[in-house]
Structure prediction request, 223 residues.
Amino acid sequence: MDKRHKYLIMLDTETANSLNDPLIYDYGWAVIDTKGRIYKERSFVNADIYLAEKELMDTAYYADKLPKYEQDIKEGKRKLAHFKTIRKALLEDMKEFDTNIVCAHNAYFDLKASNTTQRYLTKSKYRYFFPYGTEIYCTLRMARQVLGQNPRYIKWCNDYGYVTAYSRPRLTAEIIYRYITGDDTFNEEHTALADVRIEALILKYCLSRNKKVIKHLFAKAGA
Prediction:
């Protein structure tokens, strides 16, 4: 296997503000391989939003978790840094492991959040968070192919009530993780690095079930 495709960055973001204009306060990632093995982890709190936008943070969807962030920062479990420093660290890890692939569950949102935050903080001087040529993988898209049409998964979702308003099986990371592990009591932490760890398992599961699964967020089916 080409070394450039041996590793990838699995990342997750937690955001404040609206879903249309998400601003990142928690950025976490892990360097992994396609077997889900983790080689390096990073967890950052974006000071430019977390500290500088206090009113916004009070309205964050997971604002009740802010005391945990305070404690984790004090204990050194998360690093408080400016967004440009977070981006620099990510690019350093991509260079160290010679990869241009980043992956997320519902990668469209994390891509949008990364660019929106970059534009907001630089007043659109710098519009794109990831370097040109970065490949974006999406485990949600993979799961739609591997599980979305799987009769066993569909039945399981129906049995537990994990269905959308249109009676389709839900494919959130939390629900997929419950299915994969058999742990029906699992609750997603909704902090970036913790969610990355379960999404790494989802990637491993999808790729082990379907070698031809479309990984790229923007790739056309059948291409």
